[in-house]
Amino acid sequence: MIFRKSLEDEINALVAISMAAFHTDVLVGGDENEGPPGYDSPEWHKQMLQEGHVYSYLSEDDRIIGGAILFEGDNDLYIGRIFIDPQFLRCGYGMKLMEEIEKTFSNIGLIKLDTPVWNTRTNQFYKKCGYTEIAKDSEDVHYEKHI
Fold first, then answer.
1. Contact 147, 111 (CB under 8 A)
2. What is the pLDDT of residues 108-129, one digit of tens each?
3. Domains of the chain with CATH codes
4. In 10 A of CB 16, how many CB atoms?
5. Dihedrals φ, ψ of 74, to 5°?
6. Which pTM value belongs to this model?
7. Residue spans of alpha helices (H) in the chain
8. Phi-psi bin for 143: left (phi > 0), alpha (psi -120 to 50), beta?
């Protein structure tokens, strides 16, 4: 698997995968055809690309199967979102993507993220990846992991 900063010509594929992935949230309590801000916007993804936040996750045959929006701070990394093509859900690619993120940013030491309270799938997933719940409000569960 290949994990790297995205290229401009990959944006449309990433947006399509992002939309498909977040539309599956309806299966775990989400509203139909909704996702996080900009999840379905090529313009938003292009802006994130220009700022250096968009990463592609490719199979061995260079097919984009997922992506991530990451924000690197001085002492931590914030995972804005990850997404995997729904045809590859529950195949271990999400775990492998998280491992690649942790390996790539191992010098950071602390990774933070949050996910909606209602999303049982992602809450279970992040706990399985070793993330610790540090806070919870009416909308989100906040996690972190020291690496």
1. yes
2. 989 999 999 988 888 999 999 9
3. 2-108 (3.40.630.30)
4. 14
5. -70, -40
6. 0.90
7. 11-23, 42-50, 93-104, 120-128
8. beta
